[in-house]
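Data availability (excerpt). The following record was deposited with the supplementary files.
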Amino acid sequence: QWGIILDCGSSGTRARVFSWPEKGWSITEADVELEIEPGISSFANNPEALTAYLAPLLDQARLAVPDPSTTKVRAFGTAGMRLLSEMEQVPIWSAVEAAITASGFEFAAAHTIAGGYEGLFNWLTNKYVLQTTLGKDVFLGCLDYGGASFQVTFAPASGVIQDFGYRLRVDSSQERVYSYSYMRSGQDQAMLRYAKALASRSQESPILDSPCHNQGFNSSMNVAGAGERTLRGTGDYSKCKELTQALLNQQNECLLEPCAAQGVYQPPPTGVKFWARGALFFTANGLGLVDWGDAQALSTNQISAKGAEFCAKPWADVASKYSQSYCFSSAYIVAMLNAYAFPPSDETAVVYSRK
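Predicted structure:
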């Protein structure tokens, strides 16, 4: 049997193709990479355009399966869609369903999933893939730094979860898993919050000096509540770390200890092996800490050192579509992982991997 999952993220949509026997759970993912930009949430004002947007992705997916008419397609929206109201979401999902049906596939589902479940699905995938190499007794965790949210999901070594806990059956065993999604904490949304913070300090100035961008960087953006502003890079990593730390709202009261960012309860990650995905990997890769096809365990001290080195370079020496986020994200990742209670010098707890 064959099935396709459309992972509808805030910055793009990815198609994942799976096959499995009629009896049993030996799932295989096809070795194809299908992705289009931007995310479907950007079509809130023009859902009719989704058919043309999805067509190239679905056309490529058709080539990866033996019979599209018997292949079920499920589309799941994540944080980008969660930012929209229900009224804005309905026409988008209707258009997605119509596009899937028109493409000749068997439509199965199209809806937005909660952040906690987004983390759980990521954790289950990693559990399934990694347990053969790590063994079933390893306590596994996942960190997913997306465009609009940041998920933290893991099975605590202590087994104690006082909030945001889920009970799962994996193979023949019961698992207790903690999963929390920090909204507006993904790379794109965190950058917007950062720019808003800069604007609040700069009164009516049309130019915002940005320590989280390389010197020589200039880019205009619409800042919430402040209108059109220009970010001008100063490449000050020390100041960048201060400002990204402020985005975590660590001053929020912790009502159920221990807490991580924003006063949110989180059990200690001690003794858990974490896999870092999304912009965590892309940043580490951009900084030269891990190759595209590899997986590498890194400490936050290593991320910080390479981030400082990158931020000090002139923009002309590093300019590219994606490198404009590396200075900011390197500091923000360090702040987040420190808040999650990862020891800064631990070079084994977090593995950065694209897949």
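Summary of structural features: The first strand starts at residue 2 and ends at 8.
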